């Protein structure tokens, strides 16, 4: 048994690799031992896998060879220095972020590594509002709200950050979970750049609810509008209640 991606991520990645020539390196966090986006690449590529769960690290180390580095760590803006050190002078092929929490802030910190492809899990409960949860080093979505839907950032928020840094939205996973961004210098005349308003896909919740219903349950919580937030977490960092 080999790990695999949860939905159609492997299909999308293979499609993108057919279109673009990118370095065979990846960084992915957090990941599940048996499910992660870059699983189909781990046999041949050089990769770094990070997660706070010891079981996931144990599985990764038991399956993959020396080309894959798996580390157990609680990921914060400060601990991301380990990612920067691992990448070093390497050209980074794929950066995949799925921590159900500070995803936006981690991408903001690491986007200067200039990966060819970025995979970011967006929270469809936020709809098209350009928002993210405020940064908290110990953010745990299981403790934030009973619905467990208060976490991460919207598709529009990730798209704003990507466009500000020279990336374009190219694909959305069929499950309404992952967005795929490609560095603009790799794009060709055949590529169609997507916009959140047209590309948005909603996640299917187990209770049958839709994003608008989920939003009603969490809209009273604190959010950051990324279009007005400062570039740092210092003075001017704008945390507010997001209105409907």
Short description:
The protein has eight helices and ten strands.
Largest sheet: 7 strands, mixed
Question: Which fold name fills CATH's third level, the topology?
Answer: Rossmann fold
Q: What portion of the residues fall into strands of 2 or more residues?
A: 15-25%
Structural class: alpha/beta
Count, helices: 8
Going by CATH, what is the homologous superfamily?
A: Vaccinia Virus protein VP39
Explain what you see:
This protein has eight helices and ten strands. Helix 4 links the parallel strand 4 and strand 5. By secondary structure, it is an alpha/beta fold. The chain has one domain: Vaccinia Virus protein VP39 (Rossmann fold, 3-Layer(aba) Sandwich), CATH 3.40.50. It has a seven-stranded mixed β-sheet with strand order 3-2-1-4-5-8-7, sandwiched between helices. The longest helix has 11 residues, at 9-19. It is globular and about 45 Å long. Mean pLDDT is 88; it is low at 230-238.
């Amino acid at each position: 048994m080999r790990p695999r991606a949860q939905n159609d991520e492997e299909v999308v990645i293979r499609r993108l690799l057919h279109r673009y020539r990118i370095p065979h390196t990846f960084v992915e966090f957090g990941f599940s031992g048996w499910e992660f986006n870059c699983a189909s690449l781990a046999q041949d590529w050089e990769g770094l896998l990070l997660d706070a769960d010891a079981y996931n690290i144990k599985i990764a180390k038991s399956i993959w060879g020396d080309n894959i580095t798996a580390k157990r760590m609680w990921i914060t803006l400060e601990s991301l220095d380990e990612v920067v050190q691992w990448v070093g002078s390497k050209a980074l092929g794929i950066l995949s972020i799925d921590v159900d929490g500070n995803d936006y802030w981690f991408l903001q910190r690491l986007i200067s590594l200039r990966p060819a492809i970025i995979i970011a899990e967006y929270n469809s409960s936020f709809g098209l509002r350009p928002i993210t949860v405020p940064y908290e080093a110990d953010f745990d979505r299981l403790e934030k709200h009973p619905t467990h839907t208060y976490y991460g950032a919207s598709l529009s928020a990730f798209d704003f950050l990507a466009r500000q840094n020279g990336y374009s939205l190219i694909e959305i996973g069929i499950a309404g979970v992952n967005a795929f961004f490609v560095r603009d210098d790799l794009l060709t005349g055949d590529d169609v750049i997507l916009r959140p308003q047209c590309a948005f896909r909603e996640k299917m919740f187990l209770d049958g609810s839709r994003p608008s219903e989920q939003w009603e349950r969490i809209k009273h919580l604190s959010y950051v509008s990324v279009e007005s937030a400062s570039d740092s977490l210092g003075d001017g960092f704008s945390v507010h209640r997001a209105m409907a």
